[in-house]
Amino acid sequence: METATPVRRKAPRPRADALRNRERIVTAAREMFTEFGPDVPLDEIARRAGVGNATVYRNFPDRDALVREVVCSVMDRTAEAAEQALAETGDAFGALERFVHVAADERVSALCPMVATTFDRYHPDLEAARERLEGIIDALMDRAKVAGQLRTDVGVGDVMVVVAQLSRPPAGTGCEMADRFVHRHLQLLLDGMRAPAPSTLPGSAVTMEDLRQS
Question: What residues are annotated to bind DNA (predicted)?
Fold first, then answer.
């Protein structure tokens, strides 16, 4: 008697409306985490997203999962903007500038502290998004240095410190008035990174590993 081989069934693809609901939740959460911090009630996020509480919990079993998804989505969008800038422009420093301003608009500085305080910073999804982002920034900076446009004594960590410190106030501070100065001050700092450098920076170029250990 022969035993029939079980037929493997493909996992059903999520319905389009389910994908839209998930994206609406992530978008609403990003806005509210930036405005109020990571402790905003999930019920309020559901209300802003226009979905029921059950839909939020069906997609994200707990707050950590939602925060992680928001941070990963921000890093992914920022990496995509950097990749696009790298592919589209022949101006290496211009591509770096474009990335920095997009990172500011994504409110990276408001979300980064959540990585350290809200959930496991070594989660595989988060590490993958981080590695992708750091890799493309490295590529942007290397191209600008080879072109003689970017001073050689700055590192990826220097750029991320600039973005984090000047892009937006910390989440929940309500300092929207600072937004009008963001891109002006970022450009001032970017101009200070241009080569040839008029001065020698103290210390050494900051790496992302330096930031993680600080």
Answer: 41-60
CATH 1.10.357.10 fits 16-213, yes or no: yes
Is 88 in contact with 143 (CB distance < 8 Å)? no
Residue 180 corresponds to which tokens in the numbers above? 């009008």
For residue 150, what are the β-bridge partners? 194
E strand residue ranges, the chain: none
Q: pLDDT tens across 146-205, in order?
A: 999 999 999 988 888 888 777 655 555 555 555 677 888 888 888 999 999 888 888 888
Distance between CA atoms of residues 111 and 10, nearest Å: 36
Q: Tell me, what amino acid is at 11?
A: A
Q: For the packed helices 108-117 and 156-166, what is the interaxial angle rounded to 10 degrees? A: 110
The whole model's pTM is what? 0.76
Domain residue ranges in the chain? 16-213
DSSP conformation class of 175: -
- Cα torsion for 174, 178, 183, 187, to the nearest 10°? -130
HSE of 34, CA atoms in CB hemisphere, 13 A: 22
List C-alpha distances in Å: 120 to 16, 155, 175, 181, 186: 30, 26, 28, 33, 30
Q: Which residues contact 50 (CB under 8 A, 6 or more apart)?
A: 24
- In angstroms, the Cα distances linking 66 to 7, 48, 138 are 35, 15, 28
